[in-house]
Amino acid sequence: MSEAPQPTTAAEKQSSARVLPALILAMLSFSVVQTAVVPILPSLAKELSVSGSSITWLMTANLLSAAVLTPLLGRFGDLRGRKPMLLISLGGLVAGSALAVSTHSFTWLVVARVLQGAGGGVLPLAISIVRDELPKQKVTGGVAAISASMGVGSGLGLVATGLLLEHWSYKSIFWMGLVFGLIAVALVALRVPTDPVTDKDGGADPLGAIALAGWLSALLVAVSQGNHWGWTSTKTLGLFAVAAVVALIWGVIEVKVAHPLVDMKMMSRPAVAFTNLAGLLIGFGMYGSFMVISNFAQTPEKLAHYGFTATVLHAGVMLLPSALGSMVAAPLGALLIARRGPRLPLVLGGVLGAVSMAYLALRHSHEGDIYLSSAIFGLGIGLAFSAMPAYINGAVPAEQSGIANGMNAVLRTVGGAIGTAVMAAVLTGDTMKLPIPVSLPTLDAYRHAFWTAAVVCVVAGAVPFLIRSVKPVASVTTGGPAADLTSGREPVKTDA
User: Fold this and answer.
1) Can you list the alpha helix ranges (DSSP code H) found in 257-269?
2) Residues paired with residue 494 on neighbouring β-strands, in sequence order
3) Can you tell me whether residue 363 is helix, strand or coil?
């Protein structure tokens, strides 16, 4: 039975004003740090005297670390408290940034990127804290703002990288991450209260954690290095086989143990399973499209007869509208979720992403085309990101919120790795012959990449129609139903 919304008290307003900005900044810190190195990988290869294939480990190591640590930190947050785990997550980001600032060694820089990957735990932990701390009528907007901040930070990171490189060395990018991280740690420590929800009856699952780390590692390394090693090489196929076998073993472990890291019954609920599929596809579209657009903009026009000969800064500015679009998407997504449920914003997210990529496949001769497409794409990504936690939180109890959102974040990361690998394969599969030793994709290769991203986004927009309804489940710690986060009301069965 539904209740009329209660007026927000002064204490609730103060809680929202104190907690939410700290969590949003924490999310921005990680997303900025994660994407900031992408435009400068070629220049870093020259600076550190390593090959172009080796330098990609700076991205692979970070994606791998984030994929492994995000669900682990989310689960430990469910078990032992979200605030301590959030501080540990941000502590890894700060430690990694400090190490990156202090070293000139490629090996230690890879280690630094692994440490920074701990920041991936911010997303599920922050969403769980919002669910615990904010009044019910503020939860949807708070979750949408934090989730959309991932898209905002990614866009801002690309712009900040170009701006910093115009005046300073690549070290300035890691200084930026260090400063952001320290401010986030201070705000979380001072403003976020100790959360009330912990699963004191739960237990650790070391075998499950090792198996999860194993199959994710094998999968991400194979996907990230497939273009360099060859997709049919022994190493690539061997790692895919290892990933499949270990994933199967992991599934068996999680079904058998008393306190699984990931509850397979929870993961199999349609609202969770299909939302995770949508997360994989949206991650593919987001990371893959950012890479393709940035490369297209930086292509020398005199050589290729397309592109804009953009600097790193100029290419970042072209992607800035995506960050602005994601900012607009946060309150818009929250409004749509409150009124219509999470299906509409998730469908719109896929549709807008497809429209923007199809537009670029057809029109790409003017900078205005890039700006317009970037804005539409950012709006779509922001809407999709705001809807996914609402689906998941409406289907799992509070004490499983961290691990459930953590696995969704992992699948976004896996999708991003697959997206960048597939896009790179599309671009390198069709190159033009030039009188100089430089390999550039043909214009048709870019068109195919844009159409590929458009098709993936269309599929992502269709996935929500497979979710017939969201049934809030009983909370173990309270014995009552979990809060319905797709609206501001008491739990009811809601068509989604």
Assistant:
1) 264-268
2) 470
3) coil
Tokens of 169: 């060395």
Residues facing residue 495 across a β-bridge: 469
Look at residue 438 and give its three-state secondary structure.
Answer: coil
Three-class DSSP category at 431: strand
**How many other β-carbons are positioned within 10 Å of the β-carbon of residue 435?**
6
Per-residue three-class SS string for 170-211: CHHHHHHHHHHHHHHHHHHHHHCCCCCCCCCCCCCCHHHHHH
**Distance (Å, whole) CA 56 – CA 236:** 16
Residue 390 and residue 453: Cα distance in Å, rounded?
A: 25
The SS3 of residue 240 is: helix
Give pLDDT tens digits for 184-196.
999 999 999 886 6
Of the candidates 119, 214, 128, 208, the residue with the CA atom closest to the CA atom of residue 157: 119
pLDDT in tens, 130-139: 988 888 888 8
- Residue 144's beta-bridge partner residues? none
Token pair, residue 138, equals 């503020």
Pull the structure tokens for residue 370. Answer: 């890039």
Q: Provide the H-helix boundaries in 429-477.
A: 443-462
Q: Percent of the chain at pLDDT above 90?
A: 45
CA distance 140 to 451: 33
Those residues with Cβ within 8 angstroms of residue 182's Cβ, 6 or more apart along the chain or in another chain: 94
Largest CA distance in the chain: 73
What stretch of H or E contains 441? strand 440-441
Q: Residue 230: CB partners within 8 Å, gap ≥ 6?
A: 236
Identify the helix (H) or strand (E) that includes residue 29.
helix 10-36
Write down the residue that tokens 């994989």 correspond to. Answer: 280
